[in-house]
Design a protein that fits this description.
The protein has 195 residues and is an all-alpha fold. It contains 8 helices and no strands.
Length: 195
């Protein structure tokens, strides 16, 4: 294990995206541990906001099952596809998380699993972008929340910035693919398209 500053000093031939990750991450870590309430907010966004978004998805179904069934079906399928592809990528390519470096202490405990791409970013941006296609207002809320989740997981010491960017791109591409194949949703889910 080595430190971020040591990596920047020693590995001058690092790929540009890795140098960006190291530089950006080292700056964001200066924000952590300075203010108790800021740390609490970061932990809330990184660890608990995802559960709230899933809960909101179920609330949409409870509110109007017929109206939101297609939206939820496409969103969940998009997010699941992004999640599966993320797992496959991680199987073939292992990138250690930031807290694997000796000078990084995450804001909350997490397994030492692969970090690229971010599963949370891929899943929730796939979910949110699919929702946006059917309902602009709800989709914008989900996208904003997904952005907070993604950024907070970098601040919490769980991901490199490029993990997040790759997850976002993967999630959006999966949503676009599912929307294209399942348009109208009745082709895939037996539902009806909402206008």
């Amino acid at each position: 294990m080595t430190t971020i500053r040591a990596l920047l000093r020693i590995e001058t031939d690092l790929p540009i995206f890795m140098r960006f990750d190291l530089l950006f991450f080292s700056q964001t870590q200066n924000l952590i541990g300075q203010n108790f309430w800021f740390d609490v907010v970061v932990i809330f966004f990184a660890k608990y906001l995802p559960y709230i978004l899933i809960g909101l998805l179920f609330l949409l179904l409870l509110k109007d099952y017929k109206k939101y069934l297609d939206l939820v079906a496409v969103a969940v399928f998009s997010a699941s596809l992004a999640g599966v592809i993320t797992i496959i990528i991680r199987f073939f390519y292992y990138r250690p998380r930031p807290f694997a470096l000796e000078n990084i202490v995450p804001l909350f405990s997490h397994s030492v699993s692969a970090s690229f791409p971010s599963l949370h970013a891929a899943f929730f941006f796939g979910l949110s972008f699919a929702i946006l296609f059917y309902n602009k207002k709800t989709g914008a809320i989900f996208l904003a929340a997904s952005f907070l989740i993604a950024c907070s997981r970098v601040l919490a010491g769980l991901h490199w910035p490029s993990d997040i960017l790759a997850g976002i791109v993967l999630g959006i591409l999966c949503a676009l693919a599912v929307i294209r194949v399942c348009s109208p949703p009745a082709l895939c889910f037996g539902g009806h398209k909402n206008h």
